[in-house]
DNA sequence: GGAAATACTTGATCTACATCAATCTTCTTT
DNA sequence: AAAGAAGATTGATGTAGATCAAGTATTTCC
């Protein structure tokens, strides 16, 4: 079985080139963790101490409102980074939960180590700048959809954009991502099946 | 009247420290522009060629849907950066419009120049990484609000978070940001006034 | 492999917000 | 300062999607 470091290094090499020394340092700050399905990576109330890279599996970041309804902030599959960024940056208790929708493996980097990494290998600033630009654009599109489209239109966009993800996750999780009830999503799908 | 460069340099100095040489180079890529109220900085269909820093005034970035309804992606006041980032990065026609809600002054940086800046002064990667982190967090909060809160709750959050901005802009622009009609926002405000 | 939990569907009803339309108010511009 | 444009309010009515409820299908896991 292949070294999980290979996967993350390959991902990183899409954006930046590291020396052998940089690679060693980078590897040294990675902590490999395995999560069972339904296991928490982060619970609201705890401080988000790590930035996490998904090696395998699928996570969801979500909030829970006063009625106990869950609202999904993002999904994270292989190759994605995830944390409660506000909590991570500010050191305040997380408002988001992160848990596993499948058995999942991640690499976690502690905040101090990430800071060191930025200092010792400034290229990482560039990489995360680029990743954040992409995430920013994706979020903007989600915002526009959510303020300007019907539930059906949003679902169609989601389905098209994230078709492989949709195969992996329960339908009620898609509903919690779109901001509609599972009942509504079920009816939308029934409608569409007719066509 | 003071040099507008002072304002942007001061902003930047919150995040990174530049040598005199870096400052000279940075200044050399800035193009100072003035916009009258209602004037476009970018029109949908054109390519977003610049990343823009607001020196003075207020801009809005928005999309227009098939019915002709405007949906505001973001406001940008003094100290904010704005562009249609997707168009800017990909070189594709913009889907967003950007125009001035007040007489406004910006500094614009061309894409090539920004790339050069990243190369010659790598610190800028760090700065924009940090700015993007903050923007990412703010957008996440907006998304959560928009999928989990009522219009009234969203308005209350907006009002609290952006009270000074709210003083400057027409109420129908707030409505277009929240994703409700001007009528609904007017009624929400009437409700709240009763309390 | 079977019980229990979880997920999905369908129907009946309710409600937050949209739409349409008319009037009133406040800004802009000459 | 006056005319016109843009913005805000208010009322009557319509509708997308929520809620409540009861059932069916599908996983999960001892």
Task: Identify the notable features of this structure and list them briefly.
homodimer; alpha+beta; 4-stranded antiparallel β-sheet; 9 helices; 8 strands; 22% strand; DNA-binding
Strand order of the biggest β-sheet of chain A: 1-8-3-6
Count of helix runs of chain A:
9
Largest sheet of chain A: 4 strands, antiparallel
What average pLDDT do the residues of chain A reach?
95
Kindly, what is the distance between the CA atoms of the first and last residues of chain A, rounded to a whole number of angstroms?
45 Å
Query: Which pair has the most extensive contact?
Result: A-B, 32 and 32 residues
**Oligomeric state of the chains present here:** homodimer
Computed over alpha carbons, the radius of gyration of chain A is 18 Å
What share of the residues of chain A lie within helices?
Answer: 40-55%
Poorly predicted spans of chain A: none
Which descriptor suits the 3D outline of chain A?
A: globular
Number of strands of chain A: 8
**Strand composition percent of chain A:** 15-25%
Query: What structural category characterises the helix and strand content of chain A?
Result: alpha+beta
H-E order of chain A: HHEEEEEEHEEHHHHHH
Structural account:
Two copies of one chain form a homodimer. The first copy, chain A, is an alpha+beta fold and 195 residues long. In chain A, 51% of the residues lie in helices and 22% in strands. Chain A has helices at 4-13, 20-29, 85-90, 111-120, 123-148, 151-161, 163-168, 171-178, 182-194; strands at residues 31-35, 40-42, 50-56, 58-64, 70-77, 81-82, 97-100, 104-110. In chain A, the strands form two sheets. Chain A has a four-stranded antiparallel sheet. In chain A, helix 2 runs antiparallel to helix 4. The longest helix of chain A has 26 residues, at 123-148. The A-B interface holds A 63, 65, 69, 71, 73-74, 85-86, 89, 118, 122, 125-126, 128-129, 132-133, 135-137, 139-144, 146-148, 177-179 and B 63, 65, 69, 71, 73-74, 85-86, 89, 118, 122, 125-126, 128-129, 132-133, 135-137, 139-144, 146-148, 177-179. Chain B binds a DNA duplex (30 and 30 nucleotides) through helix 9.
């Amino acid at each position: 079985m292949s070294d999980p470091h290979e996967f993350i290094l390959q991902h990183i090499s899409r954006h930046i080139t590291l020396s052998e020394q940089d690679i060693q340092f980078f590897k040294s700050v990675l902590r490999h963790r395995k999560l069972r399905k339904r296991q928490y990576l982060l619970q609201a109330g705890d401080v988000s101490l790590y930035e996490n890279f998904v090696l395998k599996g699928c996570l969801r970041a979500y909030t829970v409102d006063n009625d106990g309804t869950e609202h999904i902030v993002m999904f994270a599959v292989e190759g994605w980074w995830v944390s409660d960024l506000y909590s991570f940056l500010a050191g305040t208790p997380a408002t988001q939960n992160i848990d596993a929708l499948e058995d999942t493996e991640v690499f976690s980097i502690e905040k101090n180590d990430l800071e060191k990494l930025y200092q010792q290998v400034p290229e990482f600033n560039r990489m995360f700048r680029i990743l954040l630009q992409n995430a920013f654009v994706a979020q903007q599109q989600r915002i526009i959809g959510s303020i300007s489209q019907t539930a059906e239109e949003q679902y169609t966009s989601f389905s098209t954009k994230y078709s492989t993800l949709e195969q992996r996750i329960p339908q009620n999780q898609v509903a919690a991502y779109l901001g509609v009830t599972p009942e509504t999503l079920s009816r939308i799908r029934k409608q569409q099946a007719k066509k």
